[in-house]
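note to self — DONT lose this again. spent like an hour looking for the file last time. sequence + predicted structure for the chain T wanted, 372 res
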Amino acid sequence: MRLNLTRTIRHLAVATAMTLVSGAALAAEPVKIGVIFPIKNIIGKQGQQGAELAAEMLNKAGGVAEGRQVKLIVYDTNYAPVEGVAAVQRLLTEDEVKFVVGEISSTVALAAIPVVESEGALVMFSVPKHPDVTAGKYPNVFRLNSTTAIDAVSFDKYLKDDITPSKVAILAENNDLGQLSVQNMKKLFGEKVVFSDFFGIQQSDFSSLASNTRASGADLLCIVASNPEQSGNLLRAMSDLGYTGKRCLMPGLLNNNVPKVAGKAAEGVFSEDVYAPSLDNELNKTFVANFQAKYGAVPGKIEVLGFESVWVLGNAIKAAGTDKVEKVSETLRKQEWKTPRGSLHFDQSGQAISDKLYRLVVKDRQVVETAH
């Protein structure tokens, strides 16, 4: 009898120990976040770097959801909807990820949303600007960047009332963002738009576009190019032809690498954006210092949006105390989130609303904040 009791106690002890070990192992499993960007391009690599720094900072601070570490799984979308959809499908099915962040292209984002919805996952897009990205009924879609409509409230007024062009040209990448931007500019300026054209997302020769723009007589050229290699080369082509009109990149597109690609041809180019690296708050100072230490460069808007996509999501998982999608989604909408650009919150559509937009200009080959 005593022998049986002893055996029972031992069995219970072993079972309890195994349960504790199993629970500890489960608690130690990382929270996986899928990251999608066109990482073969400068702008995609910038977004990836921001995301990686956010994961590193979250993990150093103790992780999320009962101390679990954040693990990023990164795939390249190559600016292509087919490749973007394939990447998201692989993340959600093969890698068993419940959260996806990142991307540059609105076209890729719009193609990926049905896949995310079908798997009951959550997606937080970093950069896509097309309004339709957060116009759907699926509640687990979020966006950090401003939309073209948000940008227009400030920037359109500045172009019309302060720049006051007599003739306008607009050159845009041939996708949803570019087409929408051309439509908006034609609504804003009407017959003053004397020339508009589109270029391919992988195009590298802009000599014909530059020549036609110069011949139009436009005294303001606005460019819609997500890729800094393209906007930089287009500015160089315009400079080589002796174009002397004012030049703007539409809001959100004046990347730190534009003057690196364009050189002196970028001097005086202006834009507007949700972020400037000079912002005076503690989190931004820490972010900029850590980014410079890790990558040897000053971060810009793309880097901060890549950072925010993981940083805000990670803190929401931590605040929710779980990685259940519905609870995290609910938490994201309920709270205000501190980021390097200041505080932001999400409206009911999942669109991030932040404090303000900042006017930017290229001066001495640097993108700097300028007074409104």
